[in-house]
Amino acid sequence: MDARETLIEQLREHALIIGEVTLTSGAVAQYYVDSKRAIMLPAGFRALGELVAALAAQTGATAVGGMTMGADPVACSALGAGADVKAFFVRKEAKQHGLARRIEGPLLEPGERCLVVEDVVTTGGSTVRAIEAVLEGGHEVVGVVSVLDRLAGGGEAIEAAAGAPYFPLATIDDVYPDRPDRD
Q1: In angstroms, rounded to a whole number, what is the distance separating the alpha carbons of residues 66 and 139?
Q2: Number of Cβ within a 10 Å radius of residue 15
Q3: Rounded distance, CA 128 to CA 18, Å?
Q4: What are 103-158's pLDDT values in tens digits?
Q5: Does domain 45-175 sit in CATH 3.40.50.2020?
Q6: Mean per-residue pLDDT for 72-79?
Q7: What gap in Å lies between CA 140 and CA 134, rounded to an integer?
Q8: d(Cα 77, Cα 100) in Å, to the nearest integer?
Q9: Is 30 exposed, middle or buried (0-12, 13-18, 19+ CB in 10 A)?
Q10: Is the Cβ–Cβ distance between 133 and 124 less than 8 Å?
Q11: DSSP state string for the chain
């Protein structure tokens, strides 16, 4: 089984929750994918790391990160898989104390080549905010990766904001192909 197949299997087994839930966007869904339940276990973390590290190399990224909480395990998995990158996390807003940074982690140099990562994409709103922070920081977005795309249109918004390709590692069709709302 390759890394992508392992990731999908882990998402299906550990992260898919059937039942009504309110999403970050405010929409109500009949299922939820809590990807952290899968990617923070050894098999899911290893598979994810392999995939993200490969995309970091493919895009020439020198840094991997995105909006904190969703991006944290994804960025760290790339480091765990041996990617020669910096990991970073974007805060919703800059801290009001300390160094007052919005982008945390090792200092990113001007023009740093960033692979923006996210756990689950629905509308793409939080990913777009992370992209905006990276661009405002004077860095380049070379690609965007999500662990899972719910196929609700977020991918288009992400590519438009990033001006770079979007790579969903899995989609809801992969994880829950028999869902009742599938077109």
Answers
A1: 13
A2: 23
A3: 27
A4: 999 999 999 999 999 999 988 999 999 999 999 999 999 999 999 999 989 999 99
A5: yes
A6: 97
A7: 7
A8: 26
A9: exposed
A10: no
A11: --HHHHHHHHIIIIIEEEEEEE-TTS-EEEEEE-THHHHTSHHHHHHHHHHHHHHHHHHT-SEEEEETTTSHHHHHHHHHTT--SEEEEE-SS--SSTT--SEESSPPPTT-EEEEEEEEESS-HHHHHHHHHHHHTT-EEEEEEEEEE-SSSHHHHHHHHHTS-EEES-BHHHH-TT-TT--
| pLDDT band of 62, cuts 50, 70, 90 | very high
Looking only at the bridges linking them, the beta strands covering 103-104 and 86-90 are antiparallel
Provide the residue ranges of all domains of the chain, joining segments of one domain with +. Answer: 45-175
- Taking the whole predicted model, whether its pTM rises above 0.90 is answered as yes
Token duo for residue 35: 């990807």
- Residue 28: both structure tokens together: 């109500």
* Interior/surface letters 56-70, b for 16+ CB within 10 angstroms, e for the rest: beebebbbbbbbbeb
- Of residues 21 and 47, more confidence is placed in 47
Q: Which tokens hold the place of 164?
A: 């770079």
Tokens representing 37 are 């339940």
Single-letter amino acid, residue 177? P
- Mean of all residue pLDDT scores within the chain: 93
